[in-house]
Amino acid sequence: MSQVYETPDEWYRHNKKELKKYKGQWIAFSKHGIIAHHRQYQELIKNIHLDSSEYIIDRIFENEFCEPIKLMTIIAMNN
Prior knowledge:
Largest sheet: 3 strands, antiparallel
Strand order of the largest sheet: 2-1-3
Order of helices and strands: HEEHE
Structural class: alpha+beta
Low-confidence stretches: none
């Protein structure tokens, strides 16, 4: 059974990790989930087919899901 959310914002907060596959794209989502996605904003708009449901459009930037850089200390030993 899928989770029921009250608002699109609530859906986004609970599903943000799943949006990695949309990097570099515009997404439109409602409280039920993704309703359209595309790299070009105008194409995204053409793909939204809702009558009255509340939805949000957002861009998922390429750098939102970058892994943090791990630094290592190197100790030079002089003999």
